[in-house]
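Page 37, continued from 36.
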């Protein structure tokens, strides 16, 4: 006899709350130039980016509720960017979450981004880096003495993308979205 179980709505909200509280930083990286415009699928066993450029703390976390007139637009299908769902931030716990990250116009100028990842679990920067931004990847006294990330934390999700050059005339906003 097979038993069938289901994750309840309360269970989905519990999981959403756990992930919302866990993710604290985004890292962006150069990946490999050899990827060209067709980056490979990331590995589920990755623990860091291939070549991290910068890491930044979130500026906003929120639960979301579906709202056709909402202020948050999420492209659900990367192959079809016009497939957009709209949400509004809410204080009510739901099974939809968003964590917002922004690199300002003056940050990581002229960087070529081919990968990004969301991290949590006690991310720490080296002494002297007090703001939300750390540069040059994970510190290693021999291999990367200029790295400003002391403890990278744990990588929750990694995404490889075609190259995007971050210029000084635009900010870069990436939203971690998940529906449970």
């Amino acid at each position: 006899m097979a038993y069938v179980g289901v994750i309840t709505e309360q269970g989905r909200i519990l999981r959403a709350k756990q992930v919302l509280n866990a993710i604290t930083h985004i890292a962006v990286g150069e990946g490999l130039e050899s990827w060209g415009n067709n980056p490979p699928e990331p590995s589920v066993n990755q623990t860091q980016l291939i070549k991290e450029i910068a890491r930044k703390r979130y500026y906003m976390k929120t639960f979301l509720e579906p709202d056709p007139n909402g202020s948050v637009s999420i492209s659900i299908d990367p192959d079809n960017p016009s497939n957009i769902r709209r949400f509004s931030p809410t204080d009510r716990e739901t099974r939809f979450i968003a964590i917002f990250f922004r690199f300002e116009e003056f940050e990581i100028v002229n960087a070529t981004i081919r990968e990004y990842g969301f991290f949590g679990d006690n991310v720490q920067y080296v002494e002297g880096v007090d703001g939300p931004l750390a540069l040059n990847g994970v510190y290693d006294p021999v291999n990367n003495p200029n790295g400003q990330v002391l403890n990278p934390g744990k990588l929750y999700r990694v995404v490889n993308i075609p190259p995007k050059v971050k210029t000084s005339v635009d900010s870069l906003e990436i939203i971690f979205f998940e529906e449970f």
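Residues 9-179 form one domain. Flag for discussion at group meeting. The chain has a mean pLDDT of 95.
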